[in-house]
Structure formats: C-alpha cells, structure tokens
Automatic annotation (TrEMBL):
Domain Peptidase M48: 246-365
Keyword Membrane: yes
UniProt keywords, alphabetically: Hydrolase, Membrane, Metal-binding, Metalloprotease, Protease, Transmembrane, Transmembrane helix, Zinc
Secretion signal, residue range per the UniProt entry: none
Gene Ontology MF terms in the entry: metal ion binding; metalloendopeptidase activity
Protein name: Protease HtpX
Lineage of the species this protein comes from: Bacteria, Pseudomonadati, Planctomycetota, Planctomycetia, Pirellulales
Transmembrane segments: 27-47, 74-92, 112-132, 190-209, 299-317, 323-342
Cofactor: Zn(2+)
Hydrolase listed as a keyword: yes
Cofactor binding comment, as recorded: Binds 1 zinc ion per subunit.
GO term, biological process aspect, one: proteolysis
Family to which this protein belongs: Belongs to the peptidase M48 family.
Length: 430
C-alpha cells in the first residue's frame, strides 16, 4: 500500500479519539460536504485544464499525463490535512459521541458505523482524484465515457489501493459490534474477539482479498508448472490464481499464510510478458516471504509501536492532549518500524529466492540452475516490471529501490545459508 493511502486511513481513524467539540453536528456535516465538493471540483479543473493544454498542442500528451499525475499526487497528500480539518476542525469526529436522535444513538453504540463515518471523507477525497484521472482519459479519448464506466473506474481504483486496509478493519469492527450484543462477560467477549480475529486473519482475510481482486483460473500448463515450483519449495498446499488487472500491472502476492487457504496471485501482465525464468524468480520471491514467516513478523513488529502510544496516553492521565499524542506516537512509530522490517524482509526474500532456485533447479524446468543465474533472472525481472514507470525503481516506504535490491542479492551470493529453523527445509511440505 502507498504511504499516502496508509496515512489517510490511519489518521482518519485516529481522529476518533479527538475530544468533543462545540460545532453542531449538522454544521459539521454541511462543512465536510462542502469541502469534499470543492475538492472534487479542484481535481476535475486540473484534469480539464491539462486536457485543454494537450488539445491545443501546447504540451505533449505524455507530458500532460505526467503533469496531471503530479498534480493529483500533490492533492492526495494534501488530502491528509483536509481530512484532519473535516474530522477535527469542523468537528465531524468529535460529534460522533454526542450526536443526538435515533441515528446518533445507533452510531454511538457501533464501532463499525463510527469508523465508517470517520473514513468517508478520506475515501471521498481520494475518489475525487480517481474520478479526475478517468475524466482526463475520456477527454483524451483513451477510455470510453459513460456513468457506468466512470463508477467502475473509481471502484477499481479503490479496490487496488485503500480497500486493502479499509475492508478488513471494517469487518473486524463489525465482528466486535456483534460480540457486544451477545450475553457474554467482558472476559468472555475479549477471548471471543481474539479468537475471531485470529480466524479472520488466517482464513477470512485471504478469502476477502480474493474477492476484492478480480481473479480467474490460470492456463493448465502454467498452473502445473507453478504448482511444481511451490511443491518443490515445500508449499504444495497453496492455491494459484491469475490476477486480472486489464494488462495494467506487473505484480504478485500471496494472501494468507495458513494452508490450504493461502493463495498466490500473479497478475495477467506478469504472466503474459515475462519469460519463465523470471516468473520463476517472482514466484520464489513470494514463496520465500511465506517460508520465512515475513507477514506474521510484520504484523507482530508493529505491536510495540501502539503499546508505546498507549503508554503515552495512560501517562497523560486526563489531559485532553493525551489520546492525540498517543495516536501520533503510534502512527510515527508504526511507519518507522514497518519501513525497517519491510526493507529487511524484502532483501531477505530476494536472497532466499536465489538460494531456493539453486536447490530446486534439478526438480523443476525453467528455473535458474545456480545462484548467479538466479540473481541475474531476478534482476532482469525487477528491471522489466519497472521499465514502463522508471520512478517506481526508487525506494518507497515499504520497498527498497531496485538498484539496492539487485546490489544486495549480488553481495550475498558468497557463503549462502543452507537452511534455518525460520526458513524450514525443502523436504518438509508446509
């Protein structure tokens, strides 16, 4: 997930801890709607102005698209401040605990509904930029016009970005609301919530992600070959699916880490355009993430961050700034820890993928036969998937730069690790 989307979601939810305000609830809603409307107009004005510049031959179409994307990227970052203004300055978040009337009482009793309201401005502001992108495509003749296509484009953008975080959070909060309605003690309710959360992360989340993304069966030959790759690495009980992106994305991911629910998703463009040796290294990179327990490590790593945030809130006592300070500390520490852990696990997955290739090359065809050949194939894959967008080769919040990854893999070819208790062994299926 892009750092901007992550911050937009987390900051929106954190605003729920703001102290009660003095702005009436109807005025908060009206001010928020007005700000969101103005944001939509601003984004669409940027798209229309850029399209007119291209139509008048003042700028090249490619430069126009890049210029619009830069403008919208700036708007997306500014949206974080706008969300704080809507939820905090206008008092929308602060009024959730004091809202009156039948609807207000329902919202106060539901964490799901409160979070839904808190997230609405963030989603609406993001949708403005997605809508502007689609509108620019219509004006340039790149995409078909029509309300249905426009809405489908916005939904697709949401599914590919914020939905990763928003949908699971809302599902978990919905479960929490349901548990509060059961005749259970506080201890029983807490235990039930922990059990359901674990079940959701292990089983429900992979199923949910498979529904969020559009997938289809893979062709039999590729299915058999990729299955043989996973079987050779000890991950035989893993589902495989073709991720339909309309030919727009080179991507791969594994959802879940418990067999046989876990699923390997490979995007259509990756499968159609990369040679088999490079596809093999992408698959082995994802297999390495799974074998080295990288996802659980990332999840556990952020617990201390929010633990420190909670301690800050507790130490502040009844001070009005305590909860806000704790939330800010939790967000900052989460970003720092996730970056550190994400970089380490990405580097580790690259190295482990090359070592896995060396170990299973005699078992599966079209797999590089030694570490050097595997590192070259992985490097070529990294360069190919970023060729259309060179800016993606730079380091980001959760991914090191392509050059750094290639250099790290090459530097670690000496004295490879054989097997570790973390990685497991090739012979034992997971």
């Amino acid at each position: 997930m892009h750092l901007q989307s992550f911050l937009l979601v987390i900051v929106s939810l954190s605003c729920g801890s703001l102290p009660p305000g003095e702005v009436p609830f109807p005025r908060s809603i009206l001010a928020t709607v007005g700000m969101v409307t103005a944001w939509w107009i601003l984004c669409h004005v940027a798209a229309r102005t850029t399209a007119r510049q291209v139509a008048a031959d003042r700028i090249d179409p490619i430069d126009g698209a890049r210029w619009l994307e830069k403008q919208l990227e700036i708007f997306r970052w500014l949206a974080i401040g706008v969300v704080v203004m809507c939820l905090g300055g206008f008092g929308l978040a602060a009024n959730l605990d004091t809202a009156t009337g039948p609807l207000g009482s329902i919202i106060q009793k539901s964490m799901f509904l409160q979070s839904f309201v808190l997230l609405l401005p963030a989603v609406a502001l993001s949708a403005a930029s997605w809508s502007a992108e689609h509108r620019y495509g219509v004006l340039m003749g790149y995409v078909d016009h029509g309300v249905k296509n426009h809405l489908a484009s916005i939904v697709q953008s949401f599914r590919g970005s914020m939905a990763w975080l928003i949908v699971p959070i809302l599902v978990l909060l919905g479960l929490a609301d349901g548990i509060t309605q059961l005749p259970l003690s506080e201890t029983q309710a807490a235990i039930t919530m922990v059990v359901l959360s674990l079940l959701f992360v292990c089983a429900g989340l992979p199923w949910l992600i498979s529904r969020v993304f559009k997938t289809s069966p893979m062709d039999p030959a590729s299915q058999t070959w990729i299955h043989s790759l996973l079987t050779a690495t000890g991950l035989r009980r893993t589902k495989i699916a073709r991720w339909q992106t309309g030919g727009n994305a080179f991507n791969a991911l594994i959802t879940g880490f418990v067999p046989p629910i876990r699923t390997l998703l490979l995007s259509d463009r990756l499968l159609d355009e990369l040679p088999r040796e490079q596809i093999a290294m992408v698959v082995l990179h994802e297999a390495a993430h799974l074998r080295r327990r990288h996802m659980p490590i990332r999840m556990v790593a952020i617990l201390p961050a929010w633990g420190i945030g909670t301690l800050i809130t507790y130490a502040a006592g009844n001070a009005s700034w305590g909860t806000t300070a704790g939330s800010i500390a939790g967000i900052v520490l989460t970003m720092a820890i996730l970056r550190l852990v994400a970089y380490r696990t990405e580097f580790d997955a690259d190295v482990q993928a090359c070592r896995l290739a060396e170990q299973i090359a005699h078992l599966v065809e079209d797999v590089p036969s030694d570490y050097d050949a595997a590192s070259r194939a992985l490097s070529d894959a990294l360069l190919r998937v970023t060729a259309d967008h060179p800016e993606t080769r730079r380091r980001t919040w959760l991914h090191p730069g392509v050059v750094d990854r290639i250099d790290f893999v090459r530097r670690n070819r000496i004295a490879p690790k054989i097997n570790s208790s973390t990685a497991g062994t090739i012979a034992n299926p997971a």
